[in-house]
Design goal:
Blueprint: E1 2-6, H1 11-22, E2 26-33, H2 40-52, E3 56-61, H3 99-114, E4 118-120, H4 136-148, H5 151-155, E5 161-163, H6 171-180, H7 203-214
Parallel strand pairs: 1-2, 1-4, 2-3, 4-5
Length: 224
């Protein structure tokens, strides 16, 4: 069995990849260099992919900075003053317009080309930052579109599936799952800032640290 995994190098996508491997899939990883300020996640994705023994790892480059609209792709300050309990109540400035739709579209083309029928994504709608393209209803809608918009789907030779194994898990549950599967979280990168070490103050760092604490574990990453 073949599966394409959207692998950003973060905690969630890396755990989703480990789950896919545990389910017996041969992994084909796809990572995006889209002009994000935290490009260190690309290095993390390559390291995680190597550790998981992916069959192939494609890095796609394009520049979403051309229109910006996000603290990750524009001259907008990454917020560091949010309380972790308030995250998810509104769509934050770190939302990148249509990012998962863009990513999944690339992944769909890759999936059909290699003769796979499954795409894994680390989307999570429990402990998350409020992104609309991380919700289950969005993923099901994309799955429907994928089967309407592809040769394999129209001819009925393949039924494409979007697998989001983390969608209803808390961040602590995600980490515990990854640990059981032997995932090395020291290889992952979550920080939204493009610095040498994670800041520990942005939304993503706060969610990660709170999750490790809730899981009763120590984050192996060294913070600034």
């Amino acid at each position: 069995m073949k599966a394409v995994i959207l692998l950003s190098g973060g905690l969630d996508s890396s755990t989703a990849a480990a789950i896919a491997k545990d389910r017996g899939y041969e992994l084909y990883a796809i990572t995006f260099d889209y002009g994000q300020r935290h490009r260190k996640e690309i290095e993390a994705a390559l390291a995680v992919g190597k550790a998981l023994g992916v069959k192939d790892h494609v890095v796609i480059s394009f520049d979403l900075r051309k229109w910006g609209g996000s603290a990750l792709t524009d001259d907008i300050e990454v917020p560091t003053d949010h309380d972790v309990c308030d995250l998810g109540e509104e769509i934050p400035v770190t939302y990148v317009p249509a990012r998962n739709t863009i990513f999944l579209s690339f992944a769909l083309g890759y999936t059909e080309t290699i003769g796979a029928d499954t795409i894994f994504i680390g989307a999570n709608q429990i402990d998350y930052s409020g992104y609309p393209d991380c919700r289950e209803e969005y993923l099901r809608a994309f799955e429907t579109m994928a089967n309407l918009a592809t040769k394999a789907g129209v001819e009925g030779t393949m039924r494409f599936k979007i697998e989001a194994p983390l969608i209803k898990m808390t961040k602590a549950e995600i980490i515990k799952t990854g640990v059981v599967l032997g995932l090395d979280y020291s290889l992952t990168w979550s920080c939204y800032k493009g610095e040498d070490k994670p800041c520990g103050q942005c939304d993503s760092c706060k969610l990660r640290l709170a999750a490790f604490e809730a899981a009763g574990l120590t984050d192996p990453v060294e913070y600034a």
